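Our consortium's second objective concerns turning raw sequence data into structural hypotheses that experimental partners can test. To show how far this objective has progressed, the report includes one record in full. It was chosen at random from the queue rather than selected for favorable results. The single chain below, 215 residues long, was entered without modification.
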Amino acid sequence: MRIVLVGPPGAGKGTQAAFLAKNLSIPHISTGDLFRANISQGTELGKRAKAFMDAGDLVPDEITIGMAKDRMEQSDAENGFLLDGFPRNVSQAEALDVMLKTAGMKLDAVLDLEVEEDEVVKRIAGRRTCRNDSAHVFHVLYAPPKAEGVCDTCGGELYQRGDDSEATVRNRLEVYHTQTEPIIDYYKAQGLLVTISALGKVEEVTQRAMDALKK
């Protein structure tokens, strides 16, 4: 299957993408991984992207599209892929359509993880990260530490990252509504959109997604 995964920040796209890709035996292609791989490997696209990022500017669509095209042409993506974070706007969605049509391919589904804005804020703003190890993450409501402000694993101080603050989350949501949400209507018009609730346990959402995709 060739799938695009969309949803607001905090919807659990990264987590669901990993589970779905494994269940469907297709590679998970995320924008973040594309950028990291191209920059670390010193590709021409990576160098161009890094120059924009170092200047604090958004990376132009053409660079992101080029990275995605290169990745989708790799052998492990011949029988399908799951795109996470790409396309992020209608221009990129149109470019993806052209790219796939040229290769004699098409998307099978666009999976939209739906979650209320207040729930997104609650999920992200409640996260607390260990200063000693950023892999140790807790949540004040859903996964609280045994002692407030102290990491269960190493005893390090837990803190709220700047990009997890409510103000930053609401700003990210505004960017999502303006730039990315329009692709939902774009794909709905093509009859590709499959919307599911992103509420509940991780495995429940994964099963919900698998059931929807089978249909």
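The partners drew two points from this record. Residues 166-180 form the longest helix (15 residues). The mean pLDDT is 94. Both points have been shared with the crystallography group to help prioritize constructs.
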